[in-house]
Amino acid sequence: MQGNASIAKTCNHLLVGMAPQDRQIIARDLHPEELPAKAYLERTGSRSKNIYFIESGVISLLETGDLRDPIEVGLIGREGMIGASTLVADLVPQRDSYVQIAGRALVITRSDLLQVMRSSEMLRTYLLRYVQTQIAQMSLTVSASVRANVQTRLARKLLMYHDRVGVDEMPLTHENMSLMLGVRRASITHAIHRLEGEGWVRAQRGLVVIRDRQGLETYCGPFYGVAEHRYDQIMNNRRSVHSDRSFQPPSGKGMTA
Question: What predicted TM-score, i.e. pTM, was given to this entire model?
Fold first, then answer.
C-alpha cells in the first residue's frame, strides 16, 4: 500500500512513462527516501543494492578515473534513475553518483527490479532506451567541454539544473559549480559575474537565481537543447506504444543534458 500510494503522485518521468502493468508491479516494492546533499548513491566499482527513481534534487555523475579532482560528466534529476547500467548489463558503476542538490527518490532494491525485468521484455527495452539517453548526454557534455568557453558551459549547466529543480532559485555554491565544470573557483567567479552582467542570473552566497532563462538559452545556442531533444525523442518513442499517461518533460526544451 505504501508503494502504490507513493507512485500515484510520482513526478519521476521514467515511472510515469512506464507500461502500466510494469509500473503497477514495481509500485509494490517502492519506498520513499530523502537524499541529503553530498551523499553518494553509488561509488565507482561498488554495486549498490538499491535503484533510485529521482523525484527531486539533482544527482551528479562524477568521473574520478584519472585520480585527480572529480568532474561532473552527467547529471540526473526527475527525468531519470540511478542504477540503470547495473540492471541492463550487470555492471558495477564506473562513476560516482553524488547528490549535488538535496531531494528525494522512490527506491527499490536491485534484486526486486531485476525480478520484474526478467518477466517483462517491455521494461528491459524501456530501460535500455533510458541508458541511451545518458550516453547522449555524456557525449554532448564532452563536446561542450571541448568547443565552448567556461562562461557558455556554465550557462548550459545552469539551464540543465534549472530543468530538473523546476524553480528559479537553486542552492548552488562556487564549489558546486567548480565541480560541474572541472575548473578553478576563480574561473567560476569570472563566468558568473559576466552572466550576472547580462541580467540572466543573480548570484548570492550559496544561491543562484535564474532571471532570464530565454536569454541564457539564446546565449548557449547549439550547446543546450540537443540532448534534451534526444531524450524526448528516445523516450517518447517507447511511451507512445505502451504507456497510458502522457510524458511531460520538465521546464525548458526537454530533459537530459
Answer: 0.88
